[in-house]
Structure formats: C-alpha cells, structure tokens
Design goal:
This protein has nine helices and 15 strands. With about 350 residues, the chain is α/β, with parallel strands linked by helices. A nine-stranded mixed sheet has the order 1-2-6-5-4-7-8-15-14, with helices on both faces.
Length: about 350
Amino acid sequence: MIRLIPQPESHMISEMTRAPSTDGMVRIRIDRHLAPADESAVQDELRQAIAETPRRIPTKYFYNDHGSTLFERICELPEYYQTRTEAALLHRIADQVVRTSGARELVELGSGASTKSRILLDALDAAGHLESYVPVDVSEGIVRRVANELTAEYPNLLVHGLIADFMSDLGELPSEVSGRGHSRLVAFLGGTIGNLDPASQGVDFLRHVHDAMGPGDHLLIGVDLIKDHAIIEAAYNDSAGVTAAFNLNVLSVLNQRFEANFDIEAFQHRAIYDPENNWIEMRLISTREQRVRFGALDLDLTLNEGEELLTEISTKFDRPRLRDLLGASGFDLVDWFVQDDLFALGLATPRST
C-alpha cells in the first residue's frame, strides 16, 4: 500500500540544525520542496478519476490522521505479511547489499519513520561506510524527528532531510551529501512500486529515479511476490476489518476535502485478485442507488446499487516482471533476494547510456 499524504503548504525552506556529534559539527540539513497546490488541477484530477470506468479515487486520499493510524495497524496484522517479511529479508541481506553497492550514502524514498532503513544504516555502519542519509517524505514532522533520532544514534552521520513528494520532486534530490563523490544506495521499500500501474506510472516513475542517480549508484526496490491468491486476498481482507476501515476512510477524506456527502455506511469494502494482471484491486461497493454531491466541485455523482469505486491496485511480481520493468526504465537488475516465497528485494544499477 502506498503512503502519499497530500500537503497544502507550498514554500521551500532550507535550514541547518546543530545535532549531537563528537566534534560539534552541524549534522542536519532540512530542505522543503513541496510544489504549490493548484486547486483547479486537483479538482480536475478528481473529476477525471471518478468519470473513468470503473470510477476511481486517487490513492493519495487514503491519508488523513485517521487513515495514517489505520495504515500503521494494518502493518501489524497477522494476515499482512509484507512489512515483517521485508524486514526479515533486509536483516538477512543488508551486509551483502552494502558490499555490492559500496555505498556510503543511503537515500530513502518515502522514508516514514525510517524503521527498515535503520537495518541498512546499521550494515553501513558495521562496514565503516556510513556517512550520510537522505530521508524523503511529505511529512515534515517525521523527517525532523528521524533526523534528530538518527544523528543521536550515529554520532558522525550527516542527515539531509527532504520534505517532498517523491512521486513528483525527484529533481530536488540533493547531490551526494558528504561532497566526496561517494556512491549512493537509493531504497524504495514496502512494495510501493506495486501501487503504480507497471505499464505506465511505474515506468515513468522509475525513469525519474534513474535520472536522479549517478553511474555508481544502486537502487534497492521491494516487491510483493506472485503467490497463492488466497494469501494475497487475506492480506487485504483481514479478519479484524482494519483494511476495510482504511478503505472506507477515503470517503471521509473526500467528504472533508471536497465538501462531499458520501454515506459511508452505504458502501462495502472488497479486495479481489486479478490473475490476468497479477494485482490486487481494492474497491468500495455501493450497497444502494445513491446520489453524491461534491460541493467544492459543483458536481453530482449518481451511483447504482453494486457500482464500484476503485481505490487501489497492488501489483505482484516475479523476477522476470521486475527485470522487465527495471529494464524499460533504464536499469539492470544485478541481484535478487527472496524471503519465504512471499516478498523480494531487487538490487539494480542505472544502465550506462
């Protein structure tokens, strides 16, 4: 599941902060690069999405405060294997990734609380390679907290935090922080690439990642694997109903953000596997005929009983599928790591041109 939180603020700030260190040097820099919100473009995007067949709600509207809390609960569910499986895999292969990449700087796209990135930072530290970390996230509070925590945990670490939407602001990635020309390891974890249509959005996004990397850099990308459909569907239809609540919460966000009047109790959550595309689809089903008013859009939407709103896809991969996606984006897949036939990490390098 993707974690993209829309942010209304629009200015850029760069600041230096003094953090605990052994020599008193400044260890933290925070840059803010969030583009101004074009309200008309935002509204047009939603109009277009709900006019498609099936009607679609952009994934970014999952996340208000309640949605973020629900997502954290999802990651702890017994059916939702992705988070713990990827963490176990990182523990197993982090040292090898560090040796292969030779990296001294870690860049993490969608860093969040940097929980899994600490595994890579520990491996870099143990190898004597740890110099700098670039967390990229739209949540300013999280970036600042992580920067302070990590400079305390790793006394010589430089942190250059970037408050940005990694889907659109990759051009703002700083050059290698230490200024010594060392290679970087770019981490894109959590299977988030699966939330982008691989034939279009996935290729476009990874091409932007490629353009932001240097010839000696490496990309570490996490993917959920193709497997028994029952295991996948259970992860999105948990017995506690947390994923259902998370999915339904998108309607609350639209009600608040666009002055809509969705009756949340008139929808049901459904997550089904599409074997043709090898992805899971999360949908909301209207349980009756209803009319929804979007006050901010001056738009009325009529839904029939049984009509569905598509809220998310999550593509599943095997090695050839990831290799082809990376290849179409300018990367070569150089290593492939699998945990319990459930989740995998691919290590790739930008193809020289």
